[in-house]
Amino acid sequence: METKYKRILLKLSGESLMGAQGYGIDPQRVDDYATQIKEIVDAGVQVAIVIGGGNIFRGLSGAASGFDRVKGDQMGMLATVINSLALSSALEAKGQPAQVFTAIAMTPVGEHYTKWRAIDAMNQGKVAIMSCGTGNPFFTTDTGSTLRGIEVEADVMLKGTRVDGIYTADPEKDPTATKFDTITYDEIIKRGLKVMDMTATVMARENNLPIHVFNMDVVGNLKKVITGEPIGTVVTP
Q1: Separation CA 39–CA 135 (nearest Å)
Q2: Nearest residue to 87 via CA among 75, 95, 98, 74
Q3: Confidence (pLDDT) at 40
Q4: What pLDDT shows up at residue 20?
Q5: In the structure, what pLDDT confidence band is assigned to residue 41 with cuts at 50, 70 and 90?
Q6: What is the β-pairing status of strands 156-161 and 211-215?
Q7: Which CATH architecture fits 7-236?
Q8: 183: Cα separation from own chain's centroid
Q9: 3 Cα distance to chain centroid
Q10: What single DSSP character describes residue 2?
Q11: Which residue ranges make up each domain of the chain?
Q12: Do 101 and 115 touch, CB atoms closer than 8 A?
């Protein structure tokens, strides 16, 4: 398999892990993800992963319900650890080694994250799964993904979502929304598109990190992105 990228940062949506359940972790969805990820590692791609936690707990929602914002965000970070452990277990069941890193010291659940240990794990053929976002409140896992992608010197950030790219509006709510094949960071900011939070978008722009948004829930799409098939939306400077 000819691959377009050598090292990627894959951002996975916590909500997508729910599958059709509406909450928690759907074992079939996690298994599908693990199968796709192993396929591209077998092709020689180094993979780092950041997973959201919205299928279990979202800090902003917690704050709106009366939780202290800092504690709410910390609860959200713990949700990402649960998802990361689930994915690492699914990968290892398929014979694909994986290492869970945590932005907050959490031995023996995961190894405390450093750039060099994550890169070393990938060089050994492991999938580096990086949890807890940035480890700080008031930052989303989108910002955590952008930060980690820049740190580990990924060629691209692949944002696996429930939709097949970036649209002029939310396609789940507006049937007239049209999809972009390519778009710039500045255009995203100008249009106020909810691709990622503003902090993540600006950080990616300032560090020239390309982003490819695609539907990860369709089995086979990750391979298509890696081999350069024209699906989803590519965000460039």
Answers
A1: 30
A2: 98
A3: 97
A4: 82
A5: very high
A6: parallel
A7: 3-Layer(aba) Sandwich (3.40)
A8: 19
A9: 20
A10: -
A11: 7-236
A12: no
